[in-house]
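Researcher: Sequence recovery benchmark, item below. Answer with residues only.
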C-alpha cells in the first residue's frame, strides 16, 4: 500500500498529561510502516462534555503511514491501552487519547471509525494545533482549517510551548 498522510489528535488529562502526549508522539514514530513527519506544540484546554475533571493537554501529529485506516485505529487503541487508558464513560478523564482526524482525503464511516473525525471542525483544541503544522489542510466536506478556525471560539485554548525545532516541519497536503 502506498503511504498516506494522516493526522492524529493526541490528548490527555491524567498522570502528567504533557509527558503522556510527548510519549504519544514517540509511540506514533515507532509504529510499523509509519513515519512521524510533524508534531504541533502542546495546548491546554478545558474539558468538553464532562466538565468536572482536570484541563487537557492536546496536540496534533502528522504521520505518513502504509497502515490501512482500520489497522491504524487498532494500533492507536493499543498505544492508548499501553498508557493505561480506561474507557469508564464518554468524555471521562484519560491518560492518553489518540484519534484519527484525517487519512489522506478519505471519507469513511464504519462501525467505530469515522474519517474525517466527526467533530474536529468544532474543536479549537484540534484545529489550532492542526493549523500550526498543516495550515493549508482541507477537511473533506467541511473546508479549510484556517477558515474553520474563524468560525469557532479559540479563547479557551492556550498554547503552552512552541515546537521543538527538530519537529518544526510544516506539512502541506
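Model:
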Amino acid at each position: 500500500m502506498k503511504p498516506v498522510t494522516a493526522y492524529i489528535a493526541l490528548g490527555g488529562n491524567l498522570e502528567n498529561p504533557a509527558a503522556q502526549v510527548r510519549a504519544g508522539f514517540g509511540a506514533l514514530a515507532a509504529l510499523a510502516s509509519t513515519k512521524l513527519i510533524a508534531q504541533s506544540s502542546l495546548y491546554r484546554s478545558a474539558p468538553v462534555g464532562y466538565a468536572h475533571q482536570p484541563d487537557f493537554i492536546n496536540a496534533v501529529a502528522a504521520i505518513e503511514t502504509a497502515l490501512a485506516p482500520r489497522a491504524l485505529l487498532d494500533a492507536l487503541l493499543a498505544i492508548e491501552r499501553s498508557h493505561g487508558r480506561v474507557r469508564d464513560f464518554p468524555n471521562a478523564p484519560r491518560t492518553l487519547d489518540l484519534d484519527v482526524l484525517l487519512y489522506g482525503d478519505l471519507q469513511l464511516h464504519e462501525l467505530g471509525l469515522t474519517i474525517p473525525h466527526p467533530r474536529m471542525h468544532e474543536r479549537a483544541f484540534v484545529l489550532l494545533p492542526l493549523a500550526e503544522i498543516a495550515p493549508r489542510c482541507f477537511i473533506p466536506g467541511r473546508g479549510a482549517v484556517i477558515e474553520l478556525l474563524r468560525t469557532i471560539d479559540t479563547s479557551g485554548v492556550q498554547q503552552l510551548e512552541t515546537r521543538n525545532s527538530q519537529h518544526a516541519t510544516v506539512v502541506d497536503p
